[in-house]
Amino acid sequence: LEVFDTQPAQLGGLDKEFIFAPRIDDKLCSFAAIEALIASTSNTSAHDHPDPTQDDSIIKIVGCFDDEEIGSLLRQGAKSNFLPSTIERTVSALAPNQSIPDLVSQTFANGFMISADVSHAVNPNYLSVYLENHAPQLNVGVAVQADPNGHTTTNSASTAFLQRVAEKCGSTLQVRRDGGTDAFECDGDEGD
């Protein structure tokens, strides 16, 4: 039995600037990830130089997982074997005559992972739960959540990478470090 909200999405706010809808954070992040994957297939960069992401040895994957709030351990969750199995099968298909365990290990070691979820801005009623300089503000820039307990894939390497992306786009990267509610987990065998 599955129960879910059947009410249609609504616009709200003084200028109808807010969208009220269930599961919108997952849909927003999934849409953005898939759009980025599609956009990454262009053959040239903004400066008409060859795009380094066009290297045939690069496997680009977007993983959209279910059940992050109730347990990433479910068979379709982020901590399941779905992503590692998919990568292993892909590597095996692309390099049938090579040592698959070595190539899979190299693929994970050279990989890069970003966990996406919508983060809430600082709540002025609970300022004491935010670390200084780690309380995302509205309309300032993209927020990255770094969980000191390691429940997200955000680490110093991915934060530095995203900081550079934000700079190139003329945006600001905000880092929220408080543990939060994001429950995305990987078992750690996949690299960064």
Can you offer a commentary on this structure?
The strands form 2 sheets. Strands 1-2 form a two-stranded antiparallel ribbon. A two-stranded parallel sheet has the order 3-4. Residues 180-192 have low confidence and may be disordered. A hairpin with a 5-residue loop joins strand 1 (10-12) and strand 2. The two termini are 36 Å apart. It has helices at 24-39, 82-94, 100-109, 156-168; strands at residues 10-12, 18-20, 142-145, 173-176. It is of the alpha+beta class and 192 residues long. The chain contains 4 helices and 4 strands; from the N terminus they run ββαααβαβ. Helices cover 27% and strands 7% of the residues.
Quick overview of this protein structure:
The protein has 192 residues and is an alpha+beta fold.
Helical content class: 25-40%
The neighbouring-strand order within the major sheet is 1-2
Proportion of residues in β-strands: 5-15%
Total strand segments: 4
Task: Estimate the global geometry from the Cα principal axes.
Answer: globular
Most strands sheet: 2 strands, antiparallel
Give the ordered list of helices and strands.
EEHHHEHE
Mean pLDDT: 77
Provide key terms for this protein:
single chain; 192 residues; alpha+beta; two-stranded parallel sheet
